[in-house]
């Protein structure tokens, strides 16, 4: 079984790989000895593999030199950057330690000689027994991580390597230890950050779901509010038209009959009757205008195209603006909510042009495409400012945006100084349109 197969098997069976001894090939083709540790983590719900590879080439080469050359043993032993101990295989009695051992553990050489790691308090009996089991089973120890206690009582973590070697015809146990406390702390910190990130991503997903639910609730509320508002407008428009309109018409007829009863020599009364007639006539027109703006009957009876054409004609008759309309749409199957929203957007756009644009010309496009309906209203006026578009007091624009959003459409309002303003609305045909 090669390294790759062993790695895949261990990852599959255990869900992780801990300090597996393997050989790795560099980009330049060179091969080095290393230890690989792998954990499976999840980021944003996606499975990832986090691996850490430690190069132990220098350590392996040092051990091989020590094992195969007693002549270089002393020099390598003393100058090693790792803690090294020579001890009895059975009793663990320490025969020699190097400078790095004293530095890492805090014990002087004379304190260590003749003692054991257990009597010094460096290792527990259980940890020592576990390492001996590995040594007995494999004949060596590779990267066996154990906690140790220093002379000052500080807890550190050492990675142990052990080999049986012959020194002057006697078999001894050579133990090499590396302090990996800082590295483990860094790995733990990284894993903590990853776990925290995963927790934040999970919370972000939860918040996103809550936002979606809130938007849906808000959308339903606005839809219900708009439906109620339109029903109220319809009711008020009907009452104005039926009640007030009829009363004003009756009053107009009474004025006509009264005028017929006034003689020619009663000029002042005739003038007053004529003035009353004109005022009532104008009031009837105002009532009709208010009723139409509240709820255009033509939209319900004849459809969107007829209602828009009538709105444009009324707009031109009450203003000095020229209006060009290009309408290419079959409104026979158009959803009533979509038709009403498009009509209200046009109505509000024309009102804004008349009040604020200082324009002379208006262009209107209403087109039906394969996947959406397009309404565009543009003028040649002074151009709306960006701050006016985003103003919280722009209730008319906010109302337009709400209507379009309810139909899952898109509205874009843009203006260039001195070049006019364009309102463009697209409504998907698959969303009730």
> At the first level of CATH, what is the class of the largest domain?
Alpha Beta
Helical content band: 40-55%
Strand-residue proportion: 25-35%
Can you tell me the residue ranges where pLDDT is under 50 for at least 5 consecutive residues?
none
- How many domains? 3
3D shape: rod-shaped
Distance between the termini: 65 Å
Please, how many helices? 13
Radius of gyration: 45 Å
Largest pleated sheet: 5 strands, antiparallel
CATH homologous superfamily heading of the largest domain: Histidine kinase-like ATPase, C-terminal domain
Total number of beta strands: 13
Q: From the coordinates shown, what is the CATH architecture of the largest domain?
A: 2-Layer Sandwich
Instruction: Give helix and strand order, one letter per element, not per position.
Output: HEEEHHEEHHHEEEHHHHEHEEHHEE
Per the CATH scheme, the topology name of the largest domain is Heat Shock Protein 90
Structural class: alpha+beta
Give the mean pLDDT: 85
